[in-house]
Input
Amino acid sequence: MDFLFEYVSSTAFAVLGALILDRWLGEPQSWHPLIWFGRWANRCRKAWQLYPTAPKSLQRIHGVLAWAVAVLLIVMTLTVLLWLLPSWLEWLTGTVILYFTIGWQSLREHAIAIAKPLLTQDLANARDAVGRIVSRDTSELDETQIAKAGMESVLENGSDAIFAPIFWFLVLGPFGALLYRLANTLDAMWGYKTPELLHFGWCAARVDDVLNYIPARLTVLTYAVLGNTKRALYCAWYQGRGWKSPNAGPVMAAGAGALQVSLSGAASYFGEVQVRPTLGEGPEPKAQDLDQAVRLVDKGVYLWALLILLLM
Output
């Protein structure tokens, strides 16, 4: 029982320590481990990816093998190294690993970089800023479309970049947080439905969907508790289920419902216009609403930290 108490306590303090480090230091730029992982992933893709004309099943098999080499080799190696560390380093190591897998401050900084020029009608810089965090075409977005894109990214990444890695850290420790972050990164690199990646990136996209399923639903509840609860739950259930992503849809719908704004609509991806169903209820967002989205995520982080302290 003493061992269990010590483990639970160290886990809770590791989460708090990682959040404090992230808020204080932000995300390292030139030397972040994910930059190195991205280079490693590109090498794995070059080594394993077949031409788009290859049989679909064979492309998927190569995608699975590339995913396993890219992710599991690193995760298993670091897990073995963690086991070899003395016990007094466990808390510090867990804190540092979780710090590198969350992006709370980075998300806030990206949102501010969009909101500031948008407030002064500097659409060129606002488009440039939002283009750094979304995959849609941003060159011709107007004020409302920029605000929508920014809010959608903030709400979705509240789950992907903050709550999901914390969840997997609580469940599986540093191994879980690291596995989630690398899998999520590969989905961002390989999970597009382009001719080159449709089948090769199938494994990366499906694994990310599985790992995000529970954290996304917990994020829905988080947004609902901290905003308009009734509308958030209604939008997540009735609107989110029809979204192209089984996890992003409910999360963004819940956030939009909680803040009582309408998101989504037509957007251009890789030169192709997609008409997406409406998420949320209320007026279309303006620059000021980006701050509301950031505050909603911030309050969610504080709520999770409090619950982790009280329950663990």
The first strand starts at residue 262 and ends at 269. Confidence is low (pLDDT under 50) at residues 1-7. The two ends are 14 Å apart (CA to CA).
